[in-house]
Amino acid sequence: MVKLIVDMMGSDLGSAATKEGVRRFKANHPDCELVLVGKLDELADMEGYEKIEANDTVGMTAGAMEVLRKRDASMVKAVRAAADPEMHADGVISAGGTGAFLSAATLILKKINGVKRPALVTAFPKLTDEGGYVTILDCGSSNENTAEELQQFALMGSLYSKAVYGIENPRVGLVANGSEEGKGSPLGKEAYALLKEDKKINFIGNVEGNQVLTDYTDVVVCDGFTGNVLLKTTEGVAKGMGKEIKKAFTRNLASKIGYLFARKSFNVFIDKMNPKKTGGALLLGVNGVAVKAHGNSDGENFESALNVAYKLAVANIVAKMQEGFVE
């Protein structure tokens, strides 16, 4: 049985959103044990769950040391519970501040042996008839990286793509401003040389921004600053496109009639690009499944984050990461 520790106080929308997400998830995963961390009075209506009392939260701008001093914060208690061997937990989920969660997960769960820096990973749907997902990392765990860290991100992304999506030999691309060798930033050029010689990685070269969501590659590697901009831009464009298409279909009677015929295909596209379906991002490279849900998570968002954590626990992703970093 999978066991997940859930920070119930992290969402900007409060515990009402996380409780809805837990209920929705549990309805589809009765085999999964959930431990809820938060204010006991707010969780009084959540019967049948193990609970850990916490009465504080971690601020959005909290630094690493401040996070550790927040002993009664729900996020910190949740991560500590996930790290406690007596809990036998498979993962932890929080919608709290990204920086605080990354600090807590890294310092408490600790890095996998050999990992220089954990990476924040997310998956985006490929805009192809065949479907599938492209794994993108790093998406913002840090603003500065070394070429060696990007090389490790490529290995982590490959192991993740193989374990979660069943891709036997994932194609790895490096974000650059041109597909030719020699393009890219100084950091990118240095990382390219390392990736080109790494026999553990199926490196196919540079990938441009307009190729990220195609079937050109399975794993996209970049520094954290670039990855965060890429993530937020893609989410913004997807959301904007959905609104504009909806406006176009409701502009006049003729377009409304057209919508009746195109509604099914339109809804499939909107569902594919909906960030709520992704749920959040995973911190790869630590000794535990650590999923960061969107800060503004509603019930649907939070259910998706729980789904991500469950799927990763079932895939035994941490053990596979540990095996992959054995020299």
Verbal overview:
- With 327 residues, the chain is α/β, with parallel strands linked by helices.
- Helix content is 45%, strand content 17%.
- An eleven-stranded mixed β-sheet has the order 3-2-1-4-11-10-5-6-9-7-8, with helices on both faces.
- Strand 10 (280-284) and strand 11 form a beta hairpin.
- Helix 3 runs parallel beside helix 4 (98-109) and helix 7 (224-249) packs antiparallel against helix 8.
- It is globular.
Layout of SSEs?
Layout lengths: L2 E5 L7 H14 L4 E6 L11 E4 L10 H6 L4 H10 L7 E4 L3 H12 L9 E7 L7 E5 L9 H19 L5 E5 L10 H12 L4 E6 L11 E3 L2 H26 L3 H20 L2 H4 L1 E5 L4 E5 L5 H16 L2 H8 L3
Parallel strand pairs: 1-2, 1-4, 2-3, 4-11, 6-9, 7-8, 7-9
Antiparallel strand pairs: 5-6, 5-10, 10-11
Number of strands: 11
Q: What is the rounded distance between the termini?
A: 31 Å
- Total helix count? 11
Considering DSSP H and I runs of 4 or more, what fraction of the residues is helical?
Answer: 40-55%
Radius of gyration: 20 Å
Strand content: 15-25%
**Based on helices, strands and strand pairing, what is the structural class?**
alpha/beta
Name the average pLDDT: 86
Globally, the shape reads globular
**Main β-sheet description:** 11 strands, mixed
Low-confidence stretches: none
Q: What kind of oligomer do you see?
A: single chain
State the gist of this model.
The chain has 327 residues and is α/β, with parallel strands linked by helices. The chain has helices spanning 15-28, 64-69, 74-83, 98-109, 147-165, 186-197, 224-249, 253-272, 275-278, 299-314, 317-324, and strands at 3-7, 33-38, 50-53, 91-94, 119-125, 133-137, 171-175, 202-207, 219-221, 280-284, 289-293.
